[in-house]
Amino acid sequence: EVCGLSSVHPVQCEIGRQGHRWYRTASWLVGWAYAIRREALAGFLLWRDQHPQFVRRPDNPAGFTEDSLLNYWISESERTTWHPVPTIVDHVTTLDSTYQNDAHVHRRPWVTWRDFTAGSLTDPSWWAPNGPPESVPLLPVPHPHQCWACGEGKAILGAGAVRLCRECTAQAAHVLMVQGGVK
Hints:
The chain is α/β, with parallel strands linked by helices and 183 residues long. The protein is built from five helices and seven strands.
């Protein structure tokens, strides 16, 4: 019902490496590139009208942005968002963000169509999932300020979009120093 036309999940690189053309999430939609079926949109608009406290307006600046509101609805209604790998939409970041998100870690996709040969992308069978819909990977969606390793600690260190808390950073440093890193 919902398709994120751009993929910004940090695990999508691994998903693409494994040969998957799609992954699913319980939200993770980005506001600058999505599609939603008309029936689902009608359901979302009804839900939004029933929850005016969540809508960002001049008299409610603390409300959710458009994509955050959609993600909240997707999670609440137990839907999933499908994301293509590679992404078919890139984000122009030379323009200022309308929501002051210029430094947001997810303003650009990780894997784009530029990473593939044009011929394969135009073949509809290339985009087919590797099995039934339930076999398409369902990726976790941690809070952007939480640690991606444990999912609990407050992230203090980032590498790309992957964030680590103090404890997980210490564990990683220990492994690198004591065990000599990955061989």
